[in-house]
């Protein structure tokens, strides 16, 4: 029957009685859906929307296109000539060899997609504490930042960090490799303060984060501090044309991290070697 009906329609179409078999009309697209698709096409063509802000002031001198440098010296603690590092099972070291460092990055997961947009480093110069910070305000400035930081290191530098062995140093090693530059951190002595803090106070304090260690050991309580987890958004907002206000707060947070590193280090040095954990004998 279907074949016969098709033949009849064909004959009627040829005789002019009917047109060819009608095609079902598509339902009209709702106006809101159509407008949404048009807007999506415009964004895709124009690129991501940029935020307009007049507050674009990033501290420091531009030492290369897109690379800002700041330096500050202050009276902050008086380290002994030799730092007793027995608490970290290391030999005593002259405080002139120490370089405290900390990075602010685009994420906490690590990997090749994560980059450092700020590197802070601190040392003692002529009895005063010096803080230097590098901040990139464009993606293209990363290589210049990496080269500048490499110039701050020497063969006898002792790195001081908080969880830097597991996070900051591997991340920078990846960025140097991707930039096809030698890794200046490779082979340097590295004093990671997180590990001796954990050995001594794990289970005693609520946690062993740097904020807890600085509060317990040197009495630092931060006010109006931008949490480290918000640093990526602060930098990405600036890149899109947004305000630099939170990016300046990131720099302040980074500087306090460096000061706290030095304070925690001196306190641990004063405490001396950390005894091994006590073993509890099982009673039969």
The structural class is alpha+beta
Count of runs of 4 or more consecutive helical residues: 8
Strand order of the largest sheet: 1-2-7-6-5-8-9
Taking the sheet with the most strands, its summary is:
7 strands, mixed
Helix-strand topology string: HHEEEEEEEHEHEHHHH
Give the % helix. Answer: 25-40%
Poorly predicted runs are none
Q: What integer is the average pLDDT?
A: 86
The rough form would be described as: elongated
Based on CA atoms alone, the radius of gyration comes out at 30 Å
Cα distance spanning the termini:
92 Å
Q: How many β strands by DSSP? A: 9
Strand content: 15-25%
Spell out the key features of this protein.
284 residues; alpha+beta; seven-stranded mixed β-sheet; two-stranded antiparallel sheet; 9 strands; 38% helix
Description of the molecule:
The chain is α+β, with helices and mostly antiparallel strands and 284 residues long. Helices cover 38% and strands 18% of the residues. It is built from eight helices and nine strands. The strands form two sheets. The protein has a seven-stranded mixed β-sheet with strand order 1-2-7-6-5-8-9, with helices on both faces. A two-stranded antiparallel sheet has the order 3-4. The longest helix has 27 residues, at 245-271.
